[in-house]
Amino acid sequence: MDQVIAMSFLEMDGEEYSFIWETLCELQIIFHPKYSRDGDIDFKELLDLKNTKKISVMLDRNLLSSLLKLSRDGYLKDEQEMRLIALLMTWLIMNNFPASAGLALKEYATKINDTNEPKRELREFNNIFDYYPGMIWLRLAEGAINEIPVCPLLTAPLITKIKYNEDDDHMLMHIAEMLHVVYLCRRQELSPVERMLEFLGWNYKYLLICESTLVYTAMLFTNQSGIKAPKNSGNNDIEKILSGCRNQAWDLNYLSNWSNFHYYEKTMDEIFMFATNDILLKRIFINTYAVGSVRALIEVVFSKSDAQKIFDVINLNQGEKRIKPDFGVDLKVYLSKLIEQEKNRVIEIISERG
Fold it and tell me: Please, which pLDDT band fits residue 285 given cuts at 50, 70 and 90?
């Protein structure tokens, strides 16, 4: 994952320092299961952690895109978004936290199926930290200025061996999951708990469990406000459906890839935080890492009897009782076949019911 150290001269008084921390917490854009579970950063503990660990911040695609556009044009039409980006940059610089754009670049690369353009964006991303002094970001965040100079540095593609346009195992898994979600959503005769039980049964049969996916499906199947099925899920064009599934899979891919780092944090020298202003991603993250995690959410969104049915299935498949699927010798081949299976399942239900 390509990273850049956010280093720049930045002189701040106590009021400005407090403004950055407090506003960032109010906006809820920085997340971590221990140090910022709901976007309200425990800054004292985080700053103490700097003495023993390197703290890096992963950016999602929307934040990266806004940052790049701001550096290209010198301003954003959406003033609120522009101030947010400036606030984030000021916070990174004043704490000397490295920023990582690896997953955001990969999302773009897989969408356009190209490696050259993301490497050019990586060069631009690095240029931003080289070109702009920290005080510019602070003044833009405060509203003292309304635009910044356009970054004039060269944007030739950065030479790197990373193949950004290749789907990783996590992404393939989430595409298969989302296709099955579309299939279940189109089965209108199913109740919310029936959809959840069917999804769990399918998930245990074919894949490993991803908590963020279970959070998403539980909220989706119970029609929680602001939680939507993959885009085009009601369309009859399978390619449009697949495109929508890929988009939704990327949200989950950020969280599942990031969770790998979190899982091994105790033995690593680096802590990864996650930055996003996407409402759906925020809700999935907060509910995944809240006290009680997935079980607590299920108890809230389902009735007591329906929640117990779900827990019975989960308990039946935990620990030594779980029969894990056989992924064969090549996981990518296995997942590609599963995607094809679920794609055909959706095609069949479209053919049968329209």
Answer: very high
Helices (H), the chain: 14-27, 43-49, 61-73, 79-95, 102-112, 116-131, 134-142, 169-186, 192-206, 211-221, 238-263, 279-289, 293-301, 304-316, 331-353
Classify burial at 273, counting beta carbons within 10 Å of its beta carbon; exposed 0-12, middle 13-18, buried 19 or more. Answer: buried
| β-bridge partners, 274 | 31, 58
Give the separation between CA 135 and CA 85, rounded to whole angstroms: 14
The HSE-up count of residue 289 (CA atoms within 13 Å, CB side) is 20
Phi/psi for 195 (5° steps) reads -65, -45
Rounded Cα–Cα distance for residues 184 and 148 (Å): 48
Residue 37: which residues within 8 A CB-CB, separation 6 or more?
31, 286, 289, 290
Return the pLDDT at 2. 47
Contact between 85 and 67 (Cβ < 8 Å) = yes
What is d(CA 256, CA 174) in angstroms, rounded to the nearest whole number? 9
Residue 196: both structure tokens together: 């959840």
* Separation CA 57–CA 47 (nearest Å): 14
Secondary structure class of 3 (helix, strand, coil): strand
Look at residue 6 and tell me whether its pLDDT is greater than 70. Answer: no
Joined tokens for residue 200: 């769990």
| Distance in angstroms (rounded) separating the CA atoms of residues 250 and 246 | 6
Q: Which of helix, strand or coil describes residue 36?
A: strand
Residue-by-residue DSSP string for 201-249: HHHHHHS---HHHHHHHHHHHTT-TT--PPTTTT-S-HHHHHHHHHHHH
Quote the pLDDT of residue 28.
96
Higher confidence at residue 157 or residue 38? Answer: 38
How sure is the predictor about 8, in pLDDT bands with cuts at 50, 70 and 90? Answer: low
Q: How many residues does the chain have?
A: 354
Q: Are strands 99-100 and 270-275 parallel, antiparallel or unpaired?
A: unpaired
